[in-house]
Design brief:
Number of helices: 1
Strand content: 5-15%
Organism: Bugula neritina
Pfam family, one: Sushi
Radius of gyration: 47 Å
CATH superfamily of the largest domain: Complement Module, domain 1
Number of domains: 3
CATH class of the largest domain: Mainly Beta
Strand order of the largest sheet: 1-2
CATH architecture of the largest domain: Ribbon
Keywords: Disulfide bond, Glycoprotein, Repeat, Sushi
Number of strands: 10
Protein name: Sushi domain-containing protein
Length: about 220
């Protein structure tokens, strides 16, 4: 590519060179990138910017990684996130309430391309038990008692009844049911001296009978 002026006054390179611009050829598609258009310029000093597919981001020109939303935020009284659960673009996460708590609707979140979960975490509220049924010869259960998970109620016998060895406390459990089964049974109280009272009645009866016999036979 070098020419010199010789002793005859001529340039040594008779035919001047002809240079053409270098062409890099077609670009290859990257991993999880949008296809490279076929009509882009590929000659020297041209440039092309790869674009990742939706839901992916790139840490290098030719490699794209799936977007991660990170662990979903915990709701009120929801179970903690379990490590190993998928957190990438388009993955789903189903919220679960802690034992004894519930939500009105099933709550499922999805990881979006914006690196955010699609919905806010739910609020779980305590399960409710129905008003506990009355026991046998127990005082009526008030309608105003607390009936949510963890609440307790202690039965009371009606006046004149007792249940000395019966369990009287019931608790609303995590399944929304009362724990006390069977229900308490209260029975009538017995006199402290039943035998003595019977003996006294018998003696009085015999005494009256003897007096009447004496009066009618004398």
């Amino acid at each position: 590519m070098t020419t010199s002026c010789d002793e005859q006054g001529h340039w040594t390179l008779q035919n001047p060179p002809y240079c053409t611009v270098k062409d890099c050829g077609r670009l290859e598609d990257g991993t999880n990138t949008q296809p490279v258009p076929s009509n882009i310029p590929t000659i020297y000093n041209s440039s092309y910017t790869y674009q990742c597919n939706i839901g992916f981001e790139s840490s290098a020109k030719l490699t794209a990684f799936s977007i991660s939303c990170g662990p979903p935020p915990e709701g009120i009284k929801t179970e903690s996130f379990v490590d190993g659960y998928n957190q990438e673009y388009l993955d789903y996460y189903k919220y679960r309430c802690k034992p004894g708590y519930t939500t009105d609707d099933e709550v499922i979140a999805q990881c979006l391309a914006s690196k955010r979960w699609s919905i806010l975490p739910p609020t779980c509220h305590a399960k409710k038990c129905e008003t506990p049924p009355n026991g046998e010869n127990t005082k009526a259960v008030p309608n105003s008692i607390a009936t949510t998970y963890g609440s307790s109620y202690t039965y009371e016998c009606e006046d004149g009844y007792e249940a000395p060895s019966a369990e009287m406390e019931t608790v609303c459990n995590h399944q929304g049911q009362w724990t006390l089964k069977p229900l308490p049974v209260c029975t009538g109280r017995l006199s402290q001296y039943p035998l003595e009272e019977t003996k006294q009645d018998t003696l009085i009866y015999k005494l009256i009978t003897s007096i009447l016999q004496f009066l009618f036979t004398s």
